[in-house]
């Protein structure tokens, strides 16, 4: 649908990286007012738009993961695929927003909820306090056409930190920079089982093989993204060569660094021993049951920090995984804390889910119920409501979200829009 693509282009022209969404929020509010929708905003920036007597609330988040050159995003079309030239595309969840804008133009009884800062821990959903008029919530953040999501993983962030102490380097020691770059990257939930290598882990494995001292270390782009790059500066008494062809080594001038990190051994052990990826598989749902991603390694004001995103399909296993990860880092001398907990959305076959499946089967005869090993806002939003809310998540096909390979199939967008409209029509009376 050309109008939906035009809405998406308008959305991508506005900055909306997580934590920097003010202009996008203003655009949504102005657009809704222009169509006669009432607009309410809560204390964190969620925007609830309503018109008439709605039964269905459409929902999407309006922030995006920004990797690469997103100022501005340069859209390119390859057949029916929408891509970005040198950045993430933001179809997650900008295409859901575009479908909502289109639906707002075509319906007199509708509720639309635009949540903020989903990509950095479901912040908007977790703090949402406005009452929904609708009894049914249709989330548009799923990323595979023809699938109906009725459950998702919960998440918890584990932050490990280490106050660094430095020692002087011997004058005769050699300095090297080891870089892992141009790795594929991907979403730490939906892509965690796809054997996508982590640049941080690749660097960590290599460091374990050598007798080196760390001078500095950094890597990763987002806590919830599989790392694409990592770099370490190390000191070695012998010439350094690496076996991994994905890594690049270059010599640095003597004297360019004069100190090394006294806790080098513990840090390198932590990098090498951290069990990145899927920890347990759910055979019934055929998705990961538990996983963890070491997304970022950073050094700020002499404190080394590891940011990890843990996920599980039930709250009990999520707590176990988070506690185990904290214990792992503490055993190596780090401080470690848990933060940003959001519960799992337990799969449930509601009447609304069955109604969505009935509509979906007109377009996709084999439409199936699914759960996803990533965070969806449905669970949090349901818990925030005083009355009973039934929720389902659908969406167009978006491949490689949270990476510069992100792409969206416009045929699936058109199908999803028609399905959304038919679902709204089902609950008109």
From TrEMBL:
Q: Which UniProt keywords apply?
A: Dipeptidase, Hydrolase, Protease
Q: Mind telling me which GO cellular component terms the entry cites?
A: cytosol
Stated EC number for the protein is 3.4.13.18
A Gene Ontology biological process term = proteolysis
The answer to whether UniProt assigns keyword Hydrolase to this entry is yes
Q: Does the keyword Protease apply?
A: yes
Which Gene3D superfamilies does the UniProt record give? Zn peptidases
Top-rank taxon, per record: Bacteria
- Which molecular function GO terms apply here? metallodipeptidase activity
Transmembrane regions: none
Supply the InterPro entries for this chain.
Peptidase_M20C
Query: What is the name listed in the Swiss-Prot or TrEMBL entry for this protein?
Result: Cytosol non-specific dipeptidase
- Species this chain originates from: Sulfurospirillum diekertiae
